[in-house]
Design a protein that fits this description.
It is built from 8 helices and 12 strands. It is an alpha/beta fold. It has 2 domains: 5-102, Leucine Dehydrogenase, chain A, domain 1 (Rossmann fold), CATH 3.40.50; 106-232, NAD(P)-binding Rossmann-like Domain (Rossmann fold, 3-Layer(aba) Sandwich). The strands form 2 sheets. A 6-stranded mixed β-sheet has the order 2-1-3-5-6-4, sandwiched between helices. It has a 6-stranded parallel β-sheet with strand order 9-8-7-10-11-12, with helices on both faces.
């Protein structure tokens, strides 16, 4: 059957893709035989223009590392939340015009809420400063959670891992890993933290879902911390993207 509705994922490299399998299953279950989702590994972001020209049936696409910020200049319009975040992971194409959205923030917030108690003041650490970190930043602001960034490189208003080792983790109840450390295939890596200071009052959230339990999460579990991987967030953001692609123009 002719593919009338094409969707996809851009990024580089795309060594594995949750999205392709997820949408293939969704289309099959929904009887959407004229729908297809594919991976489009782009070595350079400027290749996105040729991608769209070569696929006139492309209705929308997801954006992953390293293009969540680099895609912005190629968009005709940006949703207000995505603009505030400064990163886009979902693009809808309507009559050749591209509009960017951020469904990462939605997915992260919805998956985080069950762990939050009412009337409790939380402080958090965001490990990494890329596009995914910006979505977490946005959610924390919306929820009124005080947070700080942590990076390997010293920047203004950003802690280094060495500084966190000195400060300790007692005051930071939520620690979110937005870096690729521990992601397949380099599954033996983890952010350099004093994990021995963790306890059951901490939540470690890793945006990675492959492997399901990274070294970061394993280290937290050994100290009785609550742990959460990024799979539910991915499901939620994918469904939100599908909703956006199918919304009336």
């Amino acid at each position: 059957m002719e593919i009338k509705h094409l969707f996809g994922l851009i990024g580089f490299p795309l060594t594995h893709s949750f999205s392709k399998g997820y949408f293939a299953d969704k289309f099959k279950k929904g009887g959407l035989a004229d729908h297809f989702y594919d991976n489009f590994p782009l070595a350079h972001i400027n290749s996105v223009q040729a991608l769209i020209e070569n696929h006139p049936n492309l209705k929308g696409f997801n954006v992953t590392i390293p293009y969540k910020e680099q895609i912005l200049p190629y968009l005709d319009e940006i949703d207000s939340a995505a603009e505030a975040i400064g990163a886009v992971n979902t693009v809808k194409i309507t009559n050749g015009l591209l509009k960017g959205y951020n469904t990462d923030a939605y997915g992260f917030e919805q998956s985080l809420r069950p762990f939050l108690k009412e009337n409790q003041n939380y402080q958090a650490l965001i490990l990494g400063t890329g596009g995914a970190a910006k979505a977490v930043d946005y959610v924390f602001q919306q929820l009124g959670i005080t947070f700080f960034y942590v990076s390997r490189h010293k920047k203004e208003e950003v802690f280094t891992y060495e500084e966190i080792a000195v400060q300790g983790l007692a005051d930071y109840h939520i620690i979110v890993n937005t870096t690729p450390l521990g992601m397949y295939p380099k599954v033996d890596q983890a952010p350099n933290l004093p994990y021995e200071q963790l306890n059951n009052q901490h939540l470690l959230y890793d945006l990675t879902y492959n492997p399901p339990k990274t070294v970061f999460l394993k280290n937290g579990a050994q100290q009785n911390a609550q742990i959460k991987n990024g799979l539910e967030m991915l499901h939620l953001q994918a469904e939100k993207a599908w909703e956006i692609w199918n919304a009336p123009d």
